UniProtKB/TrEMBL annotation:
GO terms for molecular function: DNA binding; DNA topoisomerase type I (single strand cut, ATP-independent) activity. One of its GO terms (biological process) is DNA topological change. Keywords: DNA-binding. It comes from the Eukaryota. The keyword Transcription does not apply. PROSITE patterns: TOPO_IB_2 (PS52038). SMART domains: TOPEUc. InterPro entries: DNA_brk_join_enz, TopoI_cat_a/b-sub_euk, TopoI_cat_euk, TopoI_euk, Topoisomerase_IB. This is DNA topoisomerase I eukaryotic-type domain-containing protein. GO terms for cellular component: chromosome; nucleolus. Residues 148-165 have a biased composition (Basic and acidic residues). The keyword DNA-binding applies.
Amino acid sequence: MDPALQKNAKAAKFSILACEKWDHSGCVNYRCSDYYLYAFKDRASEGQPPGMLTSMLNKYLQCLMEGLTAKVFRTYNASITLQQQLKALTDSQDSIPAKILSYNRANRAVAVLCNHQRAPPKTFEQSMANLQAKTETKREQLSLAKKELKQAKQDVKGSDSEKLKNAPMMLSK
């Protein structure tokens, strides 16, 4: 490996030199966050939409390596980070449940480190509307059931007083 690349890799915030088998085409030491933050700082302050910054970053990454985009870089970074976490958290002697637990912990750590956030599904709004309708229906059913219970208690109370009034007559027969 080129000594200059190695030196830059040590200084880089996001170094992806984890696998020596990979062909390092000069962009693996690239600090996406620095480029994103500093190269477009002026445009961001002018209120330009973030999507424009991403497209410009992708164009720059394409110049460095064909097919490289911010998404590819993030995916590669997450994969390498997961490998490192698995290596740190697992032992070949572990049982299967322990390995599964280690995997889940590593996956959670990668999600935190790489700031992964699950996007809401496309049908989220419709699902929420359906849930709201079901909730409202259940509330109405609960209200009706409470009214029926109250009426039933009053009916029982009324019939008990009738029985008490008639109790002396029943005893005399």
